[in-house]
Every structure is written in structure tokens, then in C-alpha cells.
Design a protein that fits this description.
Arc Repressor Mutant, subunit A, 12 helices
């Protein structure tokens, strides 16, 4: 069951074999044996790629529960043994780069047998993967704090700032109006980011024509664009704090009329293993200090 769950999560026999430390032929044989016992195909194999069949998608949540229960049973049998195994965590660039390092360092040194696998994912994709059982846990940055099929803990309200190069015309304004932002180039992360969509909705509200965004793939490329004087951008404050302190970016005098919350989520109804409970507890402790500072 572990092999199926790993292949279904990664959608790759090769990567699954590497992570499980099996020969690829063994992974293939195990999946074939499982398909034979169930009397149905779980994966479609097309042009060198695989995807779950309808039967595979229906089977995945049950496989995830069985893997979780097996881990819990091993933990109970081991008593006070060291937390171990793998936690697959959906996360986003800003959280991984700016919030997670202290958490990762703690688990690396304190619980070396527990492996944290971080999967880059937009919030909508993370929610889907949590419901499907592909992720054990996931980080969200959303205005909404209630999600169908998912439970979450709010880690904190994520401050957002509108920034530009110090020489940008709006940097000298004592107050920036939303109408002024409709007249300048806006740099934005890819679609699917909650604060980008809220900002876009705010700029488009009552404006007639949609405000065009210059879309970048990630925050670091946005920062390079800002440094080159290409426009303005709304970003989590944590991602530009050092740049602002160094004088590389200026904070524009515009307050977002919305709020987003960073959250740690998991599938509703899932029984948490001790490893999951430990991750939730330690992450909340670390990040409470981060948001309080």
C-alpha cells in the first residue's frame, strides 16, 4: 500500500522507487500485483507518463488511511520510540524561504529519522491534494479560514506591503490612492495566489477595463523586476523586509483593504499520527514567535 501511495503522490515509478529505495522493477511488480488483486487498473500509462485512473482516484483516500494507520500502529508498538517516517507537506515559495528554515533546522537536528518532504504548490492545489490524501499537511495563505473537507490552524495574519524601487514616482507620495495604481505597471506572481487575486479584484473594481498585470513566475523574479524599476508589487512583508531595510525598495503609502492568513491544514476526519501532531505543535510554536516579532 505504501508503494501505491508513493507512486500516486509522485506520479512517477522512477521517483517512487528512488524515495522508497526499491528497484524500479520491484515497484512496478508491486503495483501490478495490487491491480490484479483489485481486478482493475489504478494507473494509465501514456507516452512515458502515468496518471491515476478513475478507480485509482477512488482508491487513493483509502490507501492513504491505511498508510496512516500502519504508521500509527508502528508508533504505538514502538512506544516512546523516535518519531520517524515521511511527512509530505504542500507549501509555497514565501513560506518555504522565509518562515520554514527554523522549523526545518529544528526537525533536522532533533528528529533526524523524520523526513519532511516539501512540495511546491499553490493554495488551490494544496487543498485538492489534502482532500485526495496526496499531502499529509499543507500551508495556505488565504483570506478564507474555513475550507470544505479540510481543517486548519491559523498561524497568523500575513502582513502585505506595496513596494517599488526608491526612484518610482509613487515612492514620494504621502498617500497613494487605488486609482493611481491603475495607471502604473503592476508586477505579480502567477495566477492562483490569493493575495494577487484580491489585489487584482480591488484594482478592477469599478475600473471598466481590466488592469493588466506583468506576471512573474516567483517572488525572486518579481524582486529583480522591482529593482530594475519595472513597476510596483504587493508582496508579503517578510519577503522584502531585508530589501526595505537596505533601502533597495520603498514601501508605498497604500493600505490593502483585505487580509490574508497563513494557515497549516490537513484533511478533515483524518486521524493524526504522532508525527503529524508533533509537526503541528512545533510549527505553531515557532511561527507564533515569528508573527509576534
Amino acid at each position: 500500500m505504501t508503494t501505491f501511495h508513493k507512486v500516486a503522490t509522485l506520479l512517477s515509478f522512477t521517483r517512487a522507487a528512488t524515495e522508497l529505495k526499491y528497484a524500479q522493477s520491484s515497484v512496478t511488480a508491486q503495483i501490478k500485483s495490487l491491480e490484479t488483486s483489485l481486478g482493475t487498473e489504478l494507473f494509465e500509462r501514456l507516452a512515458g507518463k502515468i496518471q491515476l485512473t478513475a478507480a485509482g482516484r477512488r482508491f487513493l483516500p483509502y490507501a492513504e488511511q491505511m498508510v496512516a494507520l500502519a504508521g500509527e500502529a508502528r508508533g504505538m508498538a514502538a512506544g516512546d520510540g523516535e518519531p520517524s517516517g515521511v511527512l509530505t507537506i504542500g507549501t509555497m515559495e514565501s513560506i518555504t524561504s522565509y518562515r520554514m528554515p527554523p522549523v526545518l533546522e529544528f526537525f533536522h537536528h532533533r528528529y533526524p529519522q523524520l523526513q519532511l518532504q516539501l512540495r511546491p504548490s499553490l493554495c488551490a492545489e494544496t487543498l485538492h491534494s489534502l482532500r485526495q490524501g496526496s499531502f499529509d499537511m499543507g500551508f495556505l495563505m488565504e483570506a478564507e479560514t474555513r475550507h470544505p473537507g479540510v481543517d486548519s490552524e491559523i498561524l497568523g495574519s500575513e502582513p502585505l506591503v506595496l513596494v517599488a524601487a526608491p526612484g518610482h514616482p509613487l515612492a514620494a507620495e504621502t498617500k497613494v490612492e487605488t486609482d493611481q495604481l491603475r495607471e502604473v505597471q503592476v508586477l505579480a506572481p502567477e495566477a492562483g495566489c490569493a493575495y494577487r487575486e484580491l489585489f487584482e479584484a480591488e484594482l478592477n473594481s469599478g475600473s471598466g477595463e481590466p488592469v493588466p498585470f506583468l506576471e512573474f513566475g516567483n517572488i525572486e523574479s518579481i524582486k529583480r523586476g522591482l529593482g530594475a524599476g519595472l513597476g510596483v508589487s504587493l508582496l508579503p512583508a517578510m519577503t522584502v523586509a531585508d530589501d526595505i531595510a537596505a533601502g533597495s525598495f520603498a514601501v508605498l503609502a497604500w493600505e490593502p483593504p483585505f487580509e490574508v492568513f497563513t494557515q497549516l491544514a490537513w484533511r478533515r476526519g483524518r486521524r493524526q499520527t504522532r508525527e503529524m501532531q508533533l509537526f503541528v505543535e512545533r510549527t505553531m510554536a515557532f511561527m507564533a514567535a515569528e508573527y509576534a516579532s
